[in-house]
Amino acid sequence: MQYLVEGMQTNLSRRNKLKDFTQEEMYKLIGLSYKNKVILTNKKFVMNEDIKNKLELIAKFLTSEESRDAILLHGFIGAGKTLMAEAICNVIDIINRRENNGLGNPIKKIKALEVGRLAINNLKEFEDLKKTKLLFIDDLGTEPTIMKTYGNE
Fold first, then answer.
1. Would you state the pLDDT for residue 13?
2. pLDDT, tens digit, for every residue of 62-73?
3. pLDDT digit string (tens) for 21-64?
4. CA distances from 106 to 8, 85, 132, 133 (A)
């Protein structure tokens, strides 16, 4: 059986802290959310050292006092990047709704291919997308070559 996060790497950059949560609490929340995502795909969930390390990095990122902007999950196809990102989004959505009487700031989820299409075909929507407070872009690097080189020729 393949484990979903085998080979997944996590890079962290700057953003603001999620208030009211310790790193340990965030670790548990993201871990439960990720476990549920894996189980919903009808795969066996096994908590191994690799997953624990990823969860610790993500929990530290989300609760750190340091200013941070983004999380970049990268790895091979099937490593669990999208499931981990969706787990993070679920937790952040729940926290935002709790802190804002059910409203919160919804996380905009979009495929990289669609971002490229907007940049080429709909600059108004692309500019609006750039102003999104919370943005989850999936499948970076899968855009056609024309979109990867657009503006570089």
1. 40
2. 888 775 677 888
3. 889 999 999 999 999 999 999 999 999 999 999 999 999 888 88
4. 26, 14, 9, 9
CA distance 63 to 65: 7
Spatial contact of 51 and 105, defined as CB atoms under 8 Å apart: no
The pTM assigned to this predicted structure is 0.74
Distance CA 101, CA 63 (A): 22
Contacts 24+ apart (CB under 8 A), 95-98: 95/18, 95/21
Q: Is the pLDDT confidence value at 12 over 70?
A: no
Q: Which residues, 6 or more positions from 67, have their beta carbon under 8 angstroms from its beta carbon? A: 14, 15, 16
- Report how far residue 57's alpha carbon sits from residue 55's, in angstroms, rounded to the nearest whole number: 5
Q: Is residue 74 within 8 Å of residue 9, measured between CB atoms?
A: yes
Q: Which residues lie across from 14 on neighbouring strands?
A: 68
Alpha helices in the chain (DSSP H): 23-40, 49-63, 81-99, 112-121, 123-130, 145-149
Cα–Cα distance, 92 to 17 (Å, whole number): 11
Looking up tokens 């996590």, which residue turns up? 10
Helix, strand or coil, per DSSP, at residue 132: coil
